[in-house]
Amino acid sequence: MQSKKGKKALGDKAKGGGAGRVTGPGWVNGHHQENGMENMTLFEVVKMGKSATQSVVDDWIEAYKHDRDTTLLDLINFFIQCSGCKGAVSGEMFRHMQNSEIIRKMTEEFDEDSGDYPLTLSGPQWKKFRINFCDFIAVLVRQCQYSIIYDEYMMDTIISLLTGLSDSQVRAFRHTSTLAAMKLMTALVNVALNLSINMDNTQRQYEAERNKVIAKRANDRLELLLQKRKELQENQDEIENMMNAIFKGVFVHRYRDAIAEIRAICIEEIGVWMKLYSDAFLNDSYLKYVGWTMHDKQGEVRLKCLTALQGLFYNRELSTRLELFTSRFKDRIVSMTLDKEYDVAVQAIKLLTLVLQSSDEVLTAEDCESVYHLVYSAHRPIAVAAGEFLFKKLFSHRGPEEDGLPRRGRQSLNGSLIKTTVFFFLESELHEHGAYLVDSLWECASELLKDWETMISLLLDEPMPGEEALNDRQETALVEIMLCAIRQACECHPPVGRGTGKRVLTAKEKKTQLDDRTRVTEMFAVALPLLLAKYCVDIDKVTNLLQIPKFFDLDIYTTGRLEKHLDALLRQIWEVVDKHTDTEVLEACSTTCHYLCNEEFTIFNRVDIARSQLLDELVDKFNRLLEDFLQEGEEPDEDDAYQVLSTLKKITTFHNAHDLTKWDLFTSNYRLLNTGLQNGDMPEQIVVHAMQCTHYIILWHLAKVSDGTSVKVLKQMRAFCLMCQRYINTINNAVKEQAFTILCDLLLIFSHQIMSSGREQLESLVYTPDSSLQAELLNFILDHVFIDQDDDNSTDGQQDDEASKIEALHKRRNLLAAYCKLIIYNVVEINTGADIFKQYMRYYNDYGDIIKETMSKTRQIDKIQCAKTLILSLQKLFNEMLSELGFNFDRSSSAFCGIKELARRFSLTFGLDQLKTREAIAMLHKDGIEFAFKEPSPQGEGSPPLNLAFLDILSEFSSKLIRQDKRTVHMYLERFMTFQMALQREDCWLPLISYRNSLQAGADDDTMSVISGISSRGSTVRSKKSKPATASKRKLPEEENSSSSSDAVWMNREQNVQTPVMMHSPHLTSTVLRDPKKMRPEDSFTPHPQHQTTIDYNTQVTWMLTQRQQAEARQQQERVSMHYAKMRNHMQQAIRRGSGLMEDDEEPIVEDVMMSSEDRLEDINEGMDFDTMDIDLPASKNRRERTELKPDYFDPSSIMDDSVLNVSMF
């Protein structure tokens, strides 16, 4: 009613006295005036943000006092324009139309072509506009709070307009008006809060004045205070009516709007209301909206709920009024710690931390445990928030008896807190990652975790009377936590898997890092030898303790005069090596010695002497034991074998990081391996470690190779490779796997890659495996990798069985990756990958990613050879199927359908760029056609060839042929066909019919389509030449040359009626080659040299030559086509006279082929498109020669790198 009054008054005034309008300063004709010039509307002023919001509002208020009608109309148009609407409300519309009619009119003028509007536009200007928009509303209400908002006109009109806009179907209107209404409500809440404070002050003054004695009481003042209180109460009632209208007209409907951003605005603002004016809003009537919205589907809205509640729980006075809400929605908040949105989970944990601070009794033990385990989360913000919760729960409560404890040491407060950390670490049975726990607690408890003095005291000092000492398991946990804290302090980055990378440290952080490293060195240089002496026999403790020296500042040993402690440390390392045979302990000793033996520090000579003495003793002991062990005529006992094994293991471990070439261990190890082959009774672990030690010997010789030693290195390497090859054929699986892995590594290191980066002088060291070695490696893979899980040996027990299966699968994957590296680096022939590729579908879950990446890499190397390998793998599967099912197999059988599905997957690998893979696809079809007609029918003439059904598989690749190539391939197919074959329509001939139809589909267009295709090809080549190479084009130089000459090549091929890519097929050792006697004369795809010259693929052909050859090709094609015209005519007449099989069968066959082509296009997103997939190679190197794409295996720094010695694939 109030808004209607306002509008009526506006109409009366406009009718009676509109001509006498007066404008206020800063406004001219309703436009803001800056520097005396009229230039911008209110929307533009707020959008630009150049003027202070305060001054803009003051100018508007001044204008409103002089002419409230026009000025209010400007404010209405301000909200309309802020919604992105191009229309404007005129005075005539405002006087005679209702709000709903005005909104409908504005909706009609809204620009519906674009869904963007100011609140959704990106960019700094529009972000600033949103801030200015909200500030404008807040300042407007604040400046009008003493008079204008009570005139029953401005506020009623604005609230009525915003309520109507918030109910609009137009998202822009609804979003903008909701934001405006919520900010208007927030501003009114501030006004109501001020009124409430003034009312309380007035009431207090009135009570104080009334309580005075009558003689001193001022009645006039009492009257004024009563009048003021009455006015304040009236204003309060009016403000509450406005807030009630906004809440019921906008909030109640929009907090469940379809748009998540609108819902988030509502929840964010109601949180502000409850925090600002808790007396009016902090009750269950308003809290229920926040509780309900915590179940919202959008994380953005749930996040606003949690941040709103955090503001309430942060204030202890307000948190006491949330008990009912907490009991009702606590379970929901706890469950949100596992929210799929990480930001929501973080804020939920922070909210629970505030709840915990407000009251210890609210959260149960189960609630806390659900948060505890999140300290091990891989997402660091969640883990840090959970760490803060854990710290507040377990470490923040101090009793009065703890106030007098010392600051450091075993009896200090930190001592009990460290014990508590150890107990928690051991009780979290699901996780055993100390580094993650330390990282989670680092931000809130770094001082505790850096109290290494107390930790050392807990480990070394004897417990006080009545104090419970740590048991062995607790001490092990404390050592691990201590090591993790040292690593965190010295490295200043999260553990692996919890960080996106090393961030740049600030100057303060760098200083703290240096100080911590100095403290660690000074403290543990003294304590570490004592700790090693105490726990010398404990594997876990020693392994962790020996990792501490790598965080030392080694200069402090000299500057701090701590050399005697260094000697003590070296003696303890010697003792550990002498007592232990565990691989982890020995590797820790070797790594520590390698770090301490640094030539840059003055302690190098001292450490080097100690290391040499240790290795001298080990080598002498090994040689002495080996002589006794290999004595002829005596059978070695278990004790001798154990002594040899333990000593060899220590030497091997040290040889990984240290150069032992001066001890000449190759002879003794080779002798040991040779004796094992001759006798066959050598323990497997001795053989495995002897192989590994010999491998390190060769690598260290290679790192120090010179002209005089290259012959010796090559001789040792060849002898060792032959030894490994012989061990591959032994019985023991562990020995065979070790031999295979080392052999693959050596073949890769000593391949042609060794000459890269200017090392041509090492050409004499290149070693190429012969065919027998390649065959043995491939047979090993087929026998030991492509096997079923049940065939592999496993331990007893269900849990152990699952763990052993996973470990065995991981081992097989490493073996396969080692061999695939030989393929992609051209150490073995690419076509040997056919036996790998054919397993792609069967073992997709286990090795699909490795095989897929191998195909991708081989395609980069040689597209044609890769295509030949793919078709060869299909031929192998087809032959295996024939041998199993016989030549009368059913084409609907699972075996045949599996081969066809594999062909479909292979087809997808060629991508959508048919020009790029043109020659490769043509070669694939050529090999497939020859294979299909290679073997005659076992039933004699008149029956289809033995492999004719292979054409059904080959048809999966027909869609990858361009139109002119389909015709060429079709003509090559007809050279293998007889006249009788073309007339056959029985089911056994359907593969031939289907394949021919797939080649004829789209290939019988007019000649212009061929010319246009070649013209576009030529223009493509020219455009590629004119543009600089970019990283997105993954072409090797040889590919560019071949593509640039493909036009002339194809013209010559069409002229000679032959299929594309006339290259000799590689020697395929694992397949049966065609008998030359059985080959028909026209079967030979490559002409004899004396009849036709070989085509040079690298010749650059000009465009004019291409056009002339195209014309000649058309003439030749027309002459050839005349020969088949009559034959086709006779065939069609004969079939029409026959049973009509051609008419009944041909159309469905064509339909099947076209459907399969469409299916291929739908399945392109399957992830098999290697031409478009991201290759893990530097963009700047993708266009270099193949030899430059390979790692530098000769670099001494990479000799010991995992990429060389391990079998991780890429």
TrEMBL record:
SCD domain segment(s): 251-336
Q: State if Electron transport is listed as a keyword.
A: no
Segments forming a coiled coil: 192-245
- Which PANTHER family does this one have? COHESIN SUBUNIT SA-2 (PTHR11199:SF3), STROMAL ANTIGEN (PTHR11199)
- The signal sequence is none
Describe the protein's quaternary organization and the partners it interacts with: Part of the cohesin complex which is composed of a heterodimer between a SMC1 protein (SMC1A or SMC1B) and SMC3, which are attached via their hinge domain, and RAD21 which link them at their heads, and one STAG protein.
Main localization category: nucleus
Q: Where does this protein reside within or beyond the cell?
A: Nucleus; Chromosome; Chromosome, Centromere
PROSITE patterns on file: SCD
Single GO BP term: cell division
Entry protein name: Cohesin subunit SA
Origin, by domain of life?
Eukaryota
Please give one Gene Ontology molecular function term for this protein: chromatin binding
One Pfam family recorded for the sequence: SCD
